[in-house]
Design brief:
The complex is a heterodimer of chains A (294) and B (220). In chain A, 71% of the residues lie in helices and 8% in strands. Chain A is α+β, with helices and mostly antiparallel strands and 294 residues long. In chain A, strands 2-3-1-4 form a 4-stranded antiparallel beta sheet. Chain B is built from 7 helices and 10 strands. The two termini of chain B are 21 Å apart. The chains are: A alpha+beta (294), B alpha/beta (220). Bound molecules: adenosine-5'-triphosphate and magnesium ion.
Chain lengths: 294, 220
């Protein structure tokens, strides 16, 4: 316990004594953590947009003209038993016409030129959320298109695929970038602590000769590495919070709906990120101190 | 307390110590002497495990240095106070902090440390310099700080390497008296020196080294 207090005091002293090198390390690490958190925030927001939008995402299955009741029932039955689908809604020709009238309002008089109702009957299907990726949706649409009585299947394929590709790209690059940054964090702390270690080489040699244990010698350096990581986490948290609030304020001035789309600060993902950052910093200092031989 | 059995030490191919057998008993005060470069410092280093013998066996305060584990070396050294030939004082710590370090390592309570340090600094007559940094001290004063640090933990063995290196006769005498006092309290003391005046007329054992071997033993 006393050894820990002494080590902490030594680490704090060194942190202050070498404040410029330490500041440099802390700032570099916080920038790394900020980049990671920016990626996390953007990809989280994309996810949330994707989810919100896909809630209303549906396949519209247009039926052949003059389809008999029986075939329609078979189709409905088929859809209702399909475990991939979240909901099935039948829209008759009459219903479709009414809906269109409602949408067109006064202009709906134009529809009177048609002798018969020109609109097809249709099913509106929504897919279960976990199946909402471009490949599966396309496969599903192709499957349905082949059923008897189906004229055509429509869905917002372009939107879906580009948005989800973007989100996936963000996720993959976040993983790569994140790993690179975490390694860089370990390296930054490694070099910082290594410098201190070499500067105090004589002192360490003397401590060894006086009977200091490995722990006694190592602990101040390890604590200093940990402190560098912790400080960087705090700095980057403050930075992220500042930048985020600024963006939210500025954008919501002329685009109020941004509040609906943008998620609040992704604390849940950010917290593990800074913990990992601190941990990597600690690892860096462990490697820097290395094995102590007598 | 210190036993050497047929110990040899090489630096690369140069033989520094050859077939040394030697026993220093508990409570003894003895001298090792010989010309510069004969291997006095090396002999002391073997005792506190800063060098390992190439042949032979060494036992210090019950520790068999042939079998000692890396992790046990700090605990061996806590039984051995060392007055280094090159002092090894930490420049960024004051006199009392330098002395206290030897006790910090032992995980002693800060209050006790303060007491012990203050006491030992009085003994070496440096109490008034406790807040001074080593580079503001004279050679003799630095030497006394090193001795204070070596004795503060009350080790079983005290090794002193050239403790009067470049001091005048009077200061040398003061320091020699310190060692006698420490020895009188039961600490085994081994002093390496080429200063004959240090052991003349002491009536203590003097071990002469010559060409890597023990040439003779006399009473000083
Ligand atoms: N680490 C080392 N590597 C190689 N040679 C060494 C090493 N240390 C000492 N020597 C050599 O071993 C010999 C004995 O050195 P040592 O320091 O033990 O002598 P000494 O008797 O203490 O001399 P002095 O009275 O000058 O202090 C010297 O020739 C020295 O050059
Ligand atoms: Mg020497």
């Amino acid at each position: 316990m006393r050894i820990l207090i002494y080590a902490a005091a030594t680490a704090l002293k060194s942190l202050w004594h070498e404040k410029w090198i330490n500041l440099l390390a802390v700032l570099s690490i916080s920038i790394g953590l900020l980049i990671i958190s920016a990626f996390l925030t953007i990809s989280q927001n994309l996810d949330s947009v994707l989810k919100r939008w896909s809630k209303d995402f549906g396949l519209i299955v247009y039926l052949n003209e003059g389809l008999n009741r029986e075939t329609e029932d078979i189709l409905r039955d088929f859809f209702q038993h399909d475990s991939d689908l979240a909901s099935v809604k039948y829209i008759s020709k009459d219903q479709a016409l009414q809906d269109l009238r409602k949408i067109m309002g006064k202009q709906s008089l134009a529809l009177e030129v048609f002798e018969n109702n020109p609109l097809p009957a249709s099913f509106e299907l929504t897919l279960k959320r976990e199946l909402l990726n471009p490949v599966l949706v396309e496969r599903k649409a192709a499957e349905i298109r082949h059923l008897t009585g189906v004229e055509d299947v429509q869905y917002g394929e372009k939107w879906l695929s580009s948005l989800s590709t973007l989100a996936n790209t963000m996720k993959v690059s976040a993983i790569f970038l994140g790993s690179a940054i975490f390694i860089a964090i370990a390296f930054i702390t490694y070099s910082t602590i290594k410098i201190f270690f070499y500067r105090r080489k004589d002192e360490i040699e003397t401590l060894k000769l006086l009977g200091a244990t490995r722990t006694f010698i190592r602990l101040p350096f390890l604590l200093e590495g940990l402190l560098i990581g912790l400080l960087a986490s705090i700095v980057s948290s403050l930075g992220l919070f500042g930048i985020y609030s600024l963006i939210m304020n500025k954008i919501s001035e002329f685009l109020p709906s941004i509040n609906i789309i943008m998620t609040p600060l992704p604390i849940k993902t950010y917290f593990p990120a800074i913990l990992a950052g601190t941990f990597m910093s600690f690892i860096g200092s462990i490697i820097a101190v290395g094995k102590i031989r007598y | 307390m210190i036993h050497f059995t047929s110990v040899s030490k090489f630096y690369d191919t140069d033989i520094v110590l050859k077939d040394i057998s030697l026993t220093i008993n508990k409570g003894e005060l003895a001298f090792v002497t010989g010309p510069s470069g004969v291997g006095k410092t090396t002999l002391l280093k073997l005792i506190y495990c800063a060098e390992r013998p190439d042949e032979g066996e060494i036992v210090v305060a019950g520790w068999d240095l042939k079998k000692i584990k890396q992790s046990a070396i700090p605990f061996l050294r806590r039984n051995v106070g060392i007055v280094f030939q090159d002092f090894r004082l930490l420049a960024n710590k004051t006199v009392s902090e330098n002395v206290a370090l030897a006790l910090r390592i032992h995980d002693m309570h800060p209050h006790e440390i303060k007491e012990h340090v203050s006491e030992v600094l009085k003994e070496v007559k440096l109490k008034h310099k406790e807040s001074t940094y080593p580079y503001h001290l004279s050679g003799g004063e630095q030497q006394r700080v090193v001795i204070a640090r070596a004795m503060v933990s009350k080790p079983a063995v005290l090794l002193a390497d050239e403790p009067t290196g470049n001091l005048d006769t009077e200061t040398s005498e003061t320091i020699m008296n310190l060692f006698k006092e420490i020895n009188a309290r039961g600490t085994t003391v081994l002093i390496a020196t080429h200063n004959d005046a240090l052991f003349h007329g002491t009536g203590r054992r003097v071990i002469y080294l010559k060409e890597a071997q023990i040439e003779r033993e006399v009473v000083g």
